[in-house]
Amino acid sequence: MHETHPKLLWVGHALDVREPRAVIDAGITAIIDLAYEEAVAQIPRSLTYCRFPLHDGGGNPPEQLVQVLRSATGFLRSGTPTMIACSAGLSRSPTVAAFALAHHLRQTPEEVLTRIADVKALEWNSELWSDMEAAAERFRSECRSGMNT
Q1: Which domains are assigned to the chain?
Q2: Whole-structure pTM value
Q3: Using an 8 Å Cβ cutoff, are 31 and 49 in contact?
Q4: What is the per-residue pLDDT across 75-87, written as a single tens digit (0 to 9) for each?
């Protein structure tokens, strides 16, 4: 588990989600689980748990990617300490974290991903990144029209 924005956003992997003691100890109160390959985690009631099983690559449903951004940016906007996790914590979780944090901080996802790469290893997937760019544009359009802020 790696803190990517102080006291607000962490990127993690499946073991972090399935053994949440360190998550709770870090003060994290929400988990967004992107692991497609993993079983649904048994989470204590003290944590909010959202699961969006994504493939590590292209072909994820566009609406699901937009909903991931809605959820993650909503947690960030409300100041909820959040961890985004996938199976290995190398591709899906850093990508989603980069797009959500970029929206929150009004930066580019590339800038945020560079900061994430400074604190943890990652594997960039061009198909997933492209799909997230399309989802982020749709999400920004919703925000501009007042459907989501």
Answers
A1: 2-144 (3.90.190.10)
A2: 0.94
A3: yes
A4: 999 999 999 999 9
